[in-house]
Amino acid sequence: MWSEVHLGPNIDGKQISISSPPLHKRWVPHGHGPTICLLFTHLNEFISRYEKHPLRERFFHFSSESIARLKVKANEESSTHKISSFQALSALVWRSIIRVNHLPHSQLTKCVLAINNRPRLDPPLPQSYFGNAINVTITTTAVGELLEHNLGSANKFPGKVSAFPGCEGGGSVELEICFLSDTMRALESDEEFMAAVSFSV
Predict the structure, then answer these.
(1) Percent of the chain residues topping a pLDDT of 70
(2) pLDDT tens profile 11-70
(3) Which domains does the chain have, with CATH numbers?
(4) Which residues pair with 175 in a beta bridge?
(5) What per-residue confidence (pLDDT) applies to 68?
(6) 35, 37, 86, 151: which is deepest, by most CB within 10 A?
């Protein structure tokens, strides 16, 4: 169906018919009508309007040398050699974000990693594949547990980041991070985080 939808009109301007149109009629339990009565008299009783807060968006660049140092540090702290560059960087970002938000040590925090499955399938999907082909990994830990341990410990929990290959190549990485202004200022002042950043825009 999606491939037919995206073909659009053909060359002579006629619309292309869809062989199997999507069904928009929603299922309801037997014996109940399609109308659902809510126990409210006004929208304000159950809907709160979203308050838009000013966000700051910034790219942080981590050179290949900086990432190599992070990887060595994380592996040395855990007496292992199995921690990857990306795990070390994810651990740094997660710990820094938690620290600058001043969350209670007993509060649970989640780190989410979205994984592109296109190249990982057998046979792999082309990069142009239309549709979702991702896995999501979620790890939960207490804020205190995350902050009281070092990078080598935090690498066990994958983090969700917008990561791109760095402009200089060679294993460098660009991280796109979006925060409320106060939190971004705190992150920019976080010594451990900024010590690993090569430059930011």
Answers:
(1) 78
(2) 566 677 777 776 666 666 677 766 666 677 787 777 787 777 777 778 889 999 999 999
(3) 55-121+133-200 (3.30.559.10)
(4) 60, 163
(5) 92
(6) 151
Token digits of residue 70: 């992070």
Owner of token pair 């690498």: 155
